[in-house]
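README: folding subset

This subset contains proteins for which both the sequence and a predicted structure token string are available. Records are stored as plain text. Below is the entry for Transcriptional regulator, AsnC family (151 residues), shown exactly as it appears on disk.
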Amino acid sequence: MQIDAVDQRIIALLVADARASYADIGTRVSLSAPAVKRRVDRLRATGVIRGFTAVVDPAAVGWTTEAFVELFCAGRTTPAQIGAAARRHPEVVGAYTVSGEADALVHLRAADISHLEEALERLRAEGFVTSTRSTIVLSRLVESPGVGPSS
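--- output ---
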């Protein structure tokens, strides 16, 4: 599917505010509301836009402790196995295969250090994990919800 500059701007505006009206977006991209709706419908139908969601402030729900954990895995552990294991842990907010020494990088979020340690121990108990290396986040400096410029 071809995505033009207008589609990219619509996507960026929806990432910034998924509740923006088609009329508001249309004003920003110089299209009518029905034209924006047609484009959004096409982007959804082709899988470019997979859904709309609420972005929750972790501090508001009390999960303010986070860490990035490098996973080192046994033998021929597949990305699918790592992904399935990551989905079993509610503290996992992201999991990625990576280049370098580690096989994967997992982003954990928890209520406090004790909760984080509990989550880490459960993750380490996955049968394919041979070792981990953790880095605790001290502060968030930049956080971006999506892709591209929103202007």
